[in-house]
């Protein structure tokens, strides 16, 4: 059961309305790395988790993310307060009101369609979607995804902080950004509290390929580091020599029944390309300037006509 505390988790102080800035702030309200996506990701993971401690952590953080949604939503609402009143009451001259809503972002959509309230969209007005939730039901996989999500959210908050000189907004955004750091630390601890947490899942990797680094980007400088060289890696630089990796012939095969094989052979015979001859095509019949070589060019065909037309156009232009 949820209880709503009327006090925000962090006080929101906005110096003055700014609908354009409000639309930018929506990135953390209804965007892919925003607070709603985080809350839904951790709620669904927590409800399905069988580990009591991890379940409690996920539901704790999910609930706090809802409080962060309330904080960022309140910032958006305060930034749109003036615009909401002006567009509702028509208190500004039309030109001034128009200019105040169209300076950038999706501020006009926020004001006209949503009345200045925070909408579940990103900063470009794209609606929130459950497709943002990338849980897979494996704790080691999901915790790594959560760590990445908190990292991305911190970077977005940094960028939003750089967009404003309003001290109250900077202060609130700084709090939200810092909570992303704390959540990441919790997820890191939960991940490494699981023994043998890498690789994710139950099945082990194939030993033959687990230590192989394949150098598929060749030509020019070849930077090396601990990610692609050293005792941990069996490096493959000569790609042709290392293919196929399984030592087979590299061909794709399938076992077919006699009926399927007969049908397949009939299809192949019916659709076989004729390797002899040079059929005329629709491109030949409609060829004009710029068509390049076409069928029958060496016999006075369309290619010669193309060249003749080009020469005639040059003489006409001269």
Kindly list the characteristics that best describe this protein.
318 residues; single chain; mainly alpha; 51% helix; 13 helices; two-stranded parallel ribbon; Ferritin; extended; 2% strand
Short description:
The protein is mainly α and 318 residues long. Helices cover 51% and strands 2% of the residues.
List the helices and strands and how they pair.
Elements: H1 19-25, H2 27-30, H3 35-48, H4 52-79, H5 81-89, H6 94-101, H7 107-112, H8 139-161, H9 167-192, H10 207-210, E1 212-214, E2 234-236, H11 258-270, H12 282-285, H13 302-317
Parallel strand pairs: 1-2
Description:
With 318 residues, this protein is mostly helical. It has a domain at 19-192: Ferritin (Up-down Bundle). 51% of the residues lie in helices and 2% in strands. It contains 13 helices and 2 strands. The chain has helices spanning 19-25, 27-30, 35-48, 52-79, 81-89, 94-101, 107-112, 139-161, 167-192, 207-210, 258-270, 282-285, 302-317, and strands spanning 212-214, 234-236. A two-stranded parallel ribbon has the order 1-2. It is extended and about 80 Å long. The protein starts with 18 loop residues before the first helix and ends with a helix. Residues 299-303 have low confidence and may be disordered.
Q: How many beta-strand elements?
A: 2
User: How far do the termini sit from each other?
Assistant: 85 Å
Helix content: 40-55%
Q: What about the largest sheet?
A: 2 strands, parallel
- Per CATH, the architecture of the domain at 19-192 is Up-down Bundle
User: What is the percentage of strand-forming residues?
Assistant: under 5%
Instruction: Please list the strands of the largest sheet in the order they lie side by side.
Output: 1-2
**Taking all residues together, what is the mean pLDDT?**
87
The CATH topology annotation of the domain at 19-192 reads as Ferritin
């Amino acid at each position: 059961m949820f209880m709503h505390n009327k006090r925000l988790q962090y006080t929101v102080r906005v110096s003055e309305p700014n609908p354009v800035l409000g639309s930018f702030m929506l990135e953390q309200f209804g965007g892919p790395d925003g607070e709603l996506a985080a809350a839904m990701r951790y709620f669904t993971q927590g409800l399905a988790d069988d580990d009591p401690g991890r379940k409690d952590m996920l539901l704790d953080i999910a609930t706090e993310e809802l409080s962060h949604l309330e904080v960022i939503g309140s910032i958006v609402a305060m930034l749109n307060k003036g615009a909401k009143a002006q567009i509702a009451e028509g208190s500004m001259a039309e030109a001034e009101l128009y200019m105040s809503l169209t300076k950038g972002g999706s501020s006009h959509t926020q004001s006209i369609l949503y009345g200045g309230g925070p909408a579940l969209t990103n900063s470009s007005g794209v609606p929130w979607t459950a497709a943002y939730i990338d849980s897979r039901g494996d704790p080691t996989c999901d915790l790594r995804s959560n760590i990445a999500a908190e990292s991305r959210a911190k970077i977005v908050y940094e960028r939003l902080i750089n967009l404003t000189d309003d001290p109250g907004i900077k202060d609130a955004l700084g709090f939200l950004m810092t909570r992303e750091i704390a959540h990441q630390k919790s997820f890191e601890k939960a991940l490494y509290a699981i023994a043998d947490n890498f690789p994710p899942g139950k099945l082990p990797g194939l030993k033959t390929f687990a230590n192989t680094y394949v150098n598929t980007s060749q030509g020019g400088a070849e930077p090396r580091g601990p990610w692609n060289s050293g005792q941990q890696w069996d490096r493959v630089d000569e790609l042709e020599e290392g293919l196929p990796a399984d030592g087979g012939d590299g061909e794709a095969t399938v076992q077919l029944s006699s009926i399927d094989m007969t049908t397949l052979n009939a299809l192949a015979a019916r659709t076989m390309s004729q390797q002899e001859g040079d059929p005329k095509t629709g491109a030949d019949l409609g060829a004009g300037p710029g068509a390049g070589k076409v069928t029958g060019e060496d016999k006075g065909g369309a290619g010669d006509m193309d060249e003749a037309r080009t020469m005639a156009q040059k003489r006409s232009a001269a």
